[in-house]
Design brief:
This is GntR family transcriptional regulator. Keywords: DNA-binding, Transcription, Transcription regulation. By secondary structure, this protein is mostly helical. The protein has 5 helices and 2 strands; from the N terminus they run αααββαα. Helix 1 (12-25) packs across helix 3 (49-61) and helix 2 (38-45) packs across helix 3.
Length: 117
């Protein structure tokens, strides 16, 4: 949960950036997790969209998130192994969608391939 204190001397964008960065670093937000849209998070927190956009931009600059245009902003993988796995997962998800597989079925196939993990 993110809380922005309007009475804090720390600017709202920095409060948001710091909290999201902490959630990424602690694993509370896992690689591949899609963040809310700028407008949605701004509305939820009572902030201006530009404030949220600035926080997202700085998180992207720091390599903690990736913005994928119409696909939104997602938590970036933090090392090469995770980044490769994330790319493979994205490729599989695109292929599963192209085949018309429901999400639950696509996930079940991955679990089966991993030996029930």
């Amino acid at each position: 949960m993110i809380v922005v204190d309007p009475r804090s001397p720390v600017p709202p964008f920095e409060q948001l950036r710091a909290q999201l960065a902490d959630q990424v670093r602690t694993g509370q937000l896992a690689a591949g997790t899609r963040l809310p849209t700028v407008r949605r998070l701004a509305a939820d927190l009572g902030l201006a969209p530009n404030t949220v956009a600035r926080a997202y931009k700085e998180l992207e600059r720091d390599g903690l998130v990736e913005t994928r245009g119409r696909n939104g902003t997602v938590v970036a993988a933090q090392d090469a192994q995770h980044r490769a796995a994330q790319e493979a997962a994205e490729a599989y998800a695109q292929r599963a969608r192209a085949l018309g597989l429901p999400s639950a079925e696509a996930i079940a196939l991955v679990r089966a391939a991993l030996g029930g993990a």
